[in-house]
Specification:
The chain is mostly helical and 307 residues long. Helix content is 79%, strand content 0%. It has one domain: Up-down Bundle (Na+/H+ antiporter like fold). It contains 13 helices and no strands. Helix 2 packs antiparallel against helix 9, helix 5 packs across helix 9 and helix 12 packs antiparallel against helix 13.
């Protein structure tokens, strides 16, 4: 219980920032789009470059983006098929996203920054490149009901500046180039900015909910994907690595588990509103999942022994 409360106390301040983002969006007309653009095109690339350039890279890490991309895609396509058997409309597409697309960036990365030494955060950021590729391909394909060409997918991928930042960080890492020590304070500013802006994006997204639409069946299916299947897959992969492959350190296992237990991505609410995919239901599901995850994340970390 003491360990659970310690983890909870570390994660809870992030939810306070989410609440501030909700207040900013609801009462002060702070625009989620502007915050997201600032994060995606400025803050995240700088933070990603710093962490990747300073990580102790191992050949096994090359598998991480592939594992992340494959897991996201598998869960999405599985729940799209399940959704098609349950719903005869666009709710099937929304279910596929809600049950699989996790908030590994805006929530997952701040949690990793809080719980891990800086030299390990770069591993998580590198693994996230697989999530970005998934978001630009499979997730956009499902969101657009299949009206998404391979060429458009490639263009979406190339528009993510964080991928170039990760590549640049790997280049600096490989060449052994020493970044000036004077930049350390600069990186610290951006890391703090990412935590605050990322959490506020979640709050701003939720502030646009005009009404709550709680569907027990839809919520149960979403939770089955996000909080049951995803962690089970993570447990299985960790068990396989421990028993046979021995590719990754326990710290990497813990980060993958964090990626598997964060709630539905805040971006889902924005996609649903833009594409008319039951936006109230989407926002309600993200909200319920985010609240549930406050207690679920530390509980799983304690029970799994990966704390």
């Amino acid at each position: 219980m003491d360990l659970f409360l310690t983890l909870l106390s570390n994660i809870a301040p992030l939810y306070i920032i989410i609440a501030l983002g909700w207040i900013a969006g609801r009462f002060y007309e702070v625009d989620r789009g502007s915050l997201a653009s600032l994060a995606i095109y400025i803050i995240v690339p700088v933070v990603s470059f710093y962490y990747v350039s300073s990580l102790e890279f191992k050949a096994a890490y090359i598998a991480l983006p592939l594992v992340v991309y494959s897991t996201f895609s598998f869960v999405t396509l599985l729940f799209y098929r399940i959704g098609r058997s349950v719903y005869a409309d666009k709710r099937a597409n929304l279910l596929a996203m809600c049950a699989s697309a996790s908030n590994t960036g805006y929530l997952g990365l701040p949690i990793v920054i809080l719980l891990f030494p800086p030299e390990w955060v770069g591993v998580y950021v590198f693994a996230l490149s697989g999530g970005l590729l998934y978001e630009a391909t499979i997730m956009y394909y499902i969101a657009n009901r299949g009206n998404f060409s391979p060429r458009a997918s490639v263009i979406r991928v190339l528009q993510f500046p964080v991928l170039y930042a990760i590549f640049a960080g790997l280049l600096v890492n490989y060449t052994g180039f020493e970044l000036p020590a004077q930049l350390d304070a600069f990186w610290t500013y951006f890391k703090g900015a990412y935590v605050v802006i990322g959490m506020m994006i979640v709050g701003c997204s939720l502030s646009k909910v005009s009404k709550l639409v709680i569907s027990p069946k839809f919520l149960a299916l979403t939770f089955a994907g996000q909080f049951v299947l995803w962690p089970l897959i993570a447990f299985a992969l960790i068990a396989i690595d421990n028993a046979a492959l021995h590719l990754f350190d326990p710290q990497v296992h813990k980060m993958f588990m964090i990626m598997a237990i964060v709630p539905p991505a805040a971006n889902i609410a924005a996609f649903a509103a833009k594409l008319d995919l039951n936006p109230e239901k989407a926002a309600t599901t993200v909200l319920m999942g985010t609240i549930f995850a406050l207690f679920y994340i530390p509980a799983v970390l304690v029970i799994s022994g990966l704390h």
